[in-house]
Amino acid sequence: MTSQQTTQTLAQRPTEYAFDLAHSSAEFSVKHLMIATVKGRMAITGGHVRYDPARPEDARIVAELAADSIHTGDEKRDGHLRSPDFLDAAQFPTLRFESDRVEQVDEERYRVYGRLTIRGATRSVVLDVEHEGRAKDPWGKTHDALVARTTIDRSEWGLSWNAALETGGVLVGDKVKVELNLQLIGAQ
Questions:
Q1: Mean pLDDT, to the nearest integer, of 178-185?
Q2: Cys-Cys with 117: which of 32, 48, 96, 178 at CB 3.0–4.6 Å?
Q3: What is residue 131's predicted lDDT score, i.e. its pLDDT?
């Protein structure tokens, strides 16, 4: 094998990326009283991406979030969200996403199909992912930025606690909008 062939073979290997946890976030929003939007965050605690530019459809993504890290700006509400009425963080400390397949939409956008596990229940979800750019840090490491969005129905994962309003409707909406802002660090 020539050195050019060796270089090409190495360049064609899938790249392993780790999440830059200090520069990544998981955010969500849900309707309250059927009229207002409440937003919150959860800590991304781990994960990785395996990506080969020659075969984007074979990419593999795993992401984990800490259920007890949920933060909406209201301690009482956060405690309720950690309780068995919602995430049951003591019993199910981790939310996990694992991809099954990736579909490239165009140069910067992808559709990622996978399984999301919350409270021990696993359901299929689709993430719309956009590559926002690549840069090298002052220490020579390559970083890629991605934003991933989806909307889930929380009741599909057993998060069905609610309270009826006397004017009709419910206290907490079922649809949860999720946005992940991810910074990945490539293996050197």
A1: 95
A2: 96
A3: 93
